[in-house]
């Protein structure tokens, strides 16, 4: 487990290494994680926290991560919807912390949705 | 073979982490329009952990509680059935003053309560969540009203991480990690 001092140190370290997508002027990226009972059992809390970890350690600005109720396809949980400013929502299914890492890097930072994880 | 699978499923349900039950119960409190949610985690000297969630919301209709406990589709009452199945003792009650759920776990898997708590970060801006944890080894209290004073800017995601790690660290100390 990391202490608060460790987290602050990582944050300062990452500031210089990561290209920050500062979209303050464009608006806010919003991530909604499905948190119905189905999602919780499938690992939605871990997915939510994986988004928090990735966004905080990469010091990405203007990203809001929220809980929402069941996203409607219980067999495909954990699910999350990523909404970039001015873009259509993209819904991902069967997420894991590893997939979240990829989504943050390619979609939230890079602007390109990770098509193989999009709900079918 | 079928019997074996059912047995595994039952065991899996029994092993559901308390922190995940907490997410369901606090979600119910928000759906009941609660403005203050009090979460208690108490370990007694025999090692049993009691989870209690009390709120000042409108509660859940009795027929919806019955449906939720029976596993039928109910508009409210997330996770009550799972809770009743995995807890050794379970009780739900509500009146005009709010609602109250208590569950005592005889084989408690605590999980990461801090991870569960920050799921409600956005809601904590307008609703107070108080968590009080006690065991024979110590006590810890978290109050969402003190986030700015104790941890930092609510709008900064790093503050979420600080809260999560602080709660996880303190609860691990108090409860001594997961119990099998």
Could you describe the 3D structure shown?
The complex is a heterodimer of chains A (120) and B (180). Chain A is α+β, with helices and mostly antiparallel strands. Chain A has one domain: Glutaredoxin. Helices cover 39% and strands 16% of the residues of chain A. Chain A has helices spanning 4-17, 37-42, 44-57, 97-109, and strands at residues 29-34, 63-68, 80-83, 90-92. Chain B has one domain: 2-Layer Sandwich (Heat Shock Protein 90), CATH 3.30.565. Helices cover 39% and strands 24% of the residues of chain B. Chain B has a six-stranded mixed sheet with strand order 3-4-2-1-5-6, covered by helices on one side. The model of chain B is unreliable at 1-13 (pLDDT under 50). At the A-B interface, helix 1, helix 2, helix 3 and strand 2 of A face helix 2 and helix 7 of B.
Strand order of the largest sheet of chain A: 2-1-3-4
Computed structural class of chain A:
alpha+beta
Our estimate of the beta-strand percent of chain A is: 15-25%
Radius of gyration of chain B: 17 Å
Reported by name, the CATH topology of chain A is Glutaredoxin
């Amino acid at each position: 487990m990391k202490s608060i001092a460790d987290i602050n140190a990582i944050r300062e370290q990452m500031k210089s290494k990561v290209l920050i997508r500062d979209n303050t002027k464009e608006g806010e990226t919003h991530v909604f994680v499905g948190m119905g009972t189905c999602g919780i059992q499938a690992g939605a809390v871990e997915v939510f926290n994986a988004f928090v970890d990735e966004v905080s350690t990469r010091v990405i600005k203007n990203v809001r991560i929220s809980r929402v109720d069941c996203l409607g396809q219980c067999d495909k949980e954990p699910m999350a919807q990523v909404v970039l400013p001015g873009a259509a929502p993209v819904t991902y299914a069967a997420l894991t912390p590893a997939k979240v890492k990829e989504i943050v890097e390619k979609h939230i930072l890079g602007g390109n949705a990770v098509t193989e994880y999009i709900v079918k | 073979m079928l019997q074996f699978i059912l047995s595994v499923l039952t065991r899996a349900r029994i092993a559901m982490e308390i922190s995940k039950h907490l997410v369901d119960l606090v979600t119910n409190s928000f759906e009941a329009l609660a403005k203050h949610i009090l979460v208690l985690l108490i370990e007694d000297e025999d090692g049993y952990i009691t989870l209690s969630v009390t709120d000042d919301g409108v509660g859940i209709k009795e027929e919806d509680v019955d449906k939720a406990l029976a596993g039928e589709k109910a508009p409210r009452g997330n996770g009550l059935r799972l809770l009743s199945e995995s807890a050794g003792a379970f009780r739900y009650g509500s009146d005009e003053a709010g609602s109250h759920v208590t569950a005592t776990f005889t084989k408690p898997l605590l999980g990461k309560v801090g991870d569960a708590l920050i799921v409600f970060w956005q809601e904590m801006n307008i609703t107070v969540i108080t968590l009080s944890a006690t065991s024979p080894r110590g006590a810890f209290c978290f109050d969402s009203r003190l986030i700015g004073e104790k941890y930092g800017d609510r709008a900064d995601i790093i503050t979420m991480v600080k809260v999560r790690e602080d709660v996880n660290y303190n609860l691990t100390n108090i409860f001594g990690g997961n119990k099998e």
